[in-house]
Design brief:
single chain, alpha+beta, 15 helices, 19 strands, about 25% strand
Length: about 550
Amino acid sequence: MDKLLKILRRRVLPNLPKCSKTFLKTSTNIEVIKDINRTDDNDSEFAYIGLEKKLESLVNPNLHDFIIEITINIDGFAPFESSNLTIWPILIKIFHREHEYPPFTTAVYAGKSKPKDINAYLKDFINEINRLGSTGIMIKKKNYKLSIKFFVCDAPARSFLKAIVSQVAFDACERCEVKGKKIDSVTVFLNTKAKKRSDASFRNFETPDHHNATSPLCEIVPPINMVNHFVLDPMHLIYIGCTKRILEFLFQYPASKCPSKFSGSIKKEMERRTDLIIKDIPEDFPRKMRSIKDFTEYKAVEYKFFLLYASVFIFKKLVSRELYDSILLLVSSCRMLSAENALDYVEVARENLKTFVETAPAIYGNTFVSLNVHSLIHVPDDVEFTQCNLNEISAFCFESYLGLVGKYIRFPTHIVAQYCKRIDEKETYLSPLSTDKKVYQILKENNDSILKMTYKNFIFTNSHPNNTVLLKTNSIAVIDRIFKKENIIYIEVRKYSKKINVFEKPMKSSLINMWEISQLASNVEILQLSCIVKKLVKFNMNFTENDEMKIFAVSMLH
């Protein structure tokens, strides 16, 4: 970057600084990284950056009454493939349903393994949480109460933080007292009716085999719920955990272990169908799902798209009735719990997921119900406890943050110092969120025509795959043109006159905004942009290579 700055100074912008550190406003203040301590051995480092100052700089007082809620993510990642070094930051995100705050780092540890002394690792954080919980935090002459909304971590990190046994132990379930058992060297959890754990039973060690030690998080004041405050992260549990496991059993396990194992012809047809679907994925998805033959290489967002959008059509008229019904139980439950009105569906989803888990051994095999699969029955409890849908309690935003920061760790020495400097550069320009939430933003236009825009956080154009919408009249339409007249945005649309359910059980697919559509009108209607309720993913699909193409529409959930 220094070389680039030199060229720009000479030819275009003479007032630019000479040094990249000055340009990026890299901190030279030792305060940021002075608290590096040796906590475990000579190869580990730790820095506590702090919570209060970050909150003071980020919180917009106009968005909060008297309480600031935070979500916490703690997980490890490896900055280098060829090294055993790991970084364990403590990440914070201010929770607000309508305005998206960015994650930030409040502490960071680096070493050859996870922190060996969890008490030393969490001590400063817990002390500050307790202090702010007691005195509050003053932001622009207004005192706010600090409240922990929830922790969102993967299962190994939760085991570490709660000082409980790992997920392969017989007493590993965090929500109930089910006893695991070994089948063919795999620990499975088949009982769906075991006694529920509670905060009191956890703190009193009522099931000693569930614990390794007393978690320092028990010292947080006011006390958190040591069971329910740790959500079962959908990204790791549902998408990377259960969805991947389903595909592994169906594609890779022998028929002797998976009764529903796919034949070669089914695999080939699934590849054909996924190749069709890939062409229809809107721009809103940060990563397009690859062919099903590459599923072992999928990222979490690809498993999510497969489950919530594609699986119903990829499996339809291809697999046994029992397997298809099982997939529908899982898909419908996860779509309901991901909807804005997820709380309305908690009981239905709870029953469906229980049925999915109870019937799974007969469909996928006796070793299928791992802890992740068993824990599906507890996911509705998280929606109920947090009053959030699955999108709001997932770790996706934290994973994205770590992915960006991890790219900037350049050398395998002084890891914590590098990390602190990189986040300081990244967060230098962060400022409190504006209350002026943009309803729409025009991204590309030509005279009066708008070629590309965002509305309700979705991308819209006048062409497939970004122009299919659900209207307030409950009609499905395609946008042919977007234009602005007298500061009002209009859309020219053509409506589909027919829409039917894709399936009828375990519920009508229309209840989760999934339809088969046909008969597109030729006449154009002009409507205001505000008539759009949801953006839809529109698939063109046939169920054998020579069949007539059918059209399906599915509402987007994020």
